[in-house]
Design brief:
The protein contains 13 helices and 12 strands. With 359 residues, the chain is α/β, with parallel strands linked by helices. Helix 12 (257-269) links the parallel strand 8 and strand 9 (279-284).
């Protein structure tokens, strides 16, 4: 009789039986079976005890079907650039719609808001999180994910975090190439607007600008470099500052298109012709680059492709974890392109303004 009972338990016990005996949800049992880290140690022990008591063994076919179940991915963002976010979402949602992936998009502020949002997503059953800038560089947020054994892919970080997969471009090389391009037009006074200091890509782009100046023999001038925040508003303030200088730049290279567009707006307001009196170049090649006049010469960062690649990479890692494996993190570096439009030209010397009343 005991032997028949034991055989019946091995044959008939289900994940719901285990959940009832352990006093937890079937999802929690599934997480324990899959070796996920976001389960308390005491809960894990209780579930394992229930599994042993019921002689429960997952059906291989069921495990196979579970691996094919829809994947839930979180996309956490706090990027102030609507143009950047729009392109990022296009890539994420495009891949998700074709790959049986559900994406939960959540907006958050910086600091503790982002950390709490990540915890909330994980508690809600999200299996991994995509982190676009600036969250890709949040050390506190990444530590929260490490502590929870959560999966994540960072996008557009200048220095990808250890232990996480990443998708980026070579920001240093891109800024280097753009600065060399501007110098090749004949400009010697090339202004530069730095991006948000909390983002590592800003550091890489500034380094590329400086190294390019050095490569063509143009001295670096502190007065031609100013701090922005990757926002249109900060671009307005910084452009005013640079153009108010006694000897202003003949070209301004902004670390993103939002700040470059703001520079063009300031130039228009001052009666400065772009590009004949002032060359303005950007970075990213968002939709904004072609909706202003003149259209921006900029670095094309494949934002849509980067987002798509991040979701694809994260989905592979999740499937690997479901199968009981630990995938090694990867760093994908996609190509960029310098796109020349109408906002750059060789410098010209404007004739001095003379007062006709003075003979």
């Amino acid at each position: 009789m005991n032997q028949q009972t034991s055989r019946r338990q091995r044959t008939n016990a289900t994940i719901n039986d285990v959940a009832r005996k352990a006093g937890v949800s079937p999802m929690t049992v599934s997480r324990v079976l899959n070796g996920e880290g976001n389960v308390r140690a005491t809960t894990r022990e209780t579930v394992n005890a229930a599994i042993a008591a019921l002689n429960y063994s997952p059906n291989p076919a069921a495990r196979s079907l579970a691996g094919a179940a829809p994947i839930r991915i979180g996309l956490l963002y706090s990027n102030p650039s609507a143009a950047y976010l729009s392109e990022f979402l296009v890539g994420s949602l495009d891949y998700a719609s074709r790959a049986n992936i559900q994406i939960v998009v959540e907006k958050c502020g910086a600091g503790e808001q982002a950390e709490e949002a990540a915890k909330r997503l994980l508690r809600g059953g999200v299996e991994g999180i995509v982190l676009p800038p600036p969250l890709c560089d949040s050390t506190a947020l990444l530590q929260v994910l490490r502590d929870a054994n959560g999966l994540a892919v960072t996008v557009a970080s200048g220095h990808p975090a250890p232990g996480f997969s990443a998708v980026s471009i070579d920001d240093h090389r891109a800024a280097f190439d753009m600065t060399r391009h501007i110098a090749a037009l004949g400009h010697q006074r090339i202004g530069f607007i730095i991006g948000n200091p909390d983002q590592t890509a800003s550091e890489r782009r500034l380094a590329g600008y400086r190294d390019a100046l050095d490569s063509v023999g143009i001295p670096y001038a502190e007065g031609l470099v100013a701090q922005g925040l990757f926002t249109y508003r900060s671009g307005l303030d910084v452009a005013e500052h640079l153009l108010d200088a006694e000897n202003p730049p003949t070209a301004i290279f902004a670390s993103n298109d939002d700040m470059a567009a703001a520079t063009v707006a300031v130039a228009h307001r001052r009666g400065i012709d772009v590009p004949n009196d002032l060359t303005v170049c950007g970075f990213d090649d968002t939709a904004l680059a072609t909706t202003i006049w003149p259209e921006l010469t900029t670095i094309h960062q494949p934002i849509t492709d980067m987002s798509l690649a991040a979701v694809e990479l994260l989905a592979k890692e999740i499937r690997s974890r479901r199968a009981g494996h630990r995938a090694k993190e990867q760093h994908l570096q996609l190509d960029f392109q310098l796109v020349r439009r109408q906002s750059d030209a060789a410098p010209r010397r404007r004739p001095p303004v003379t007062d006709p009343r003075i003979s």
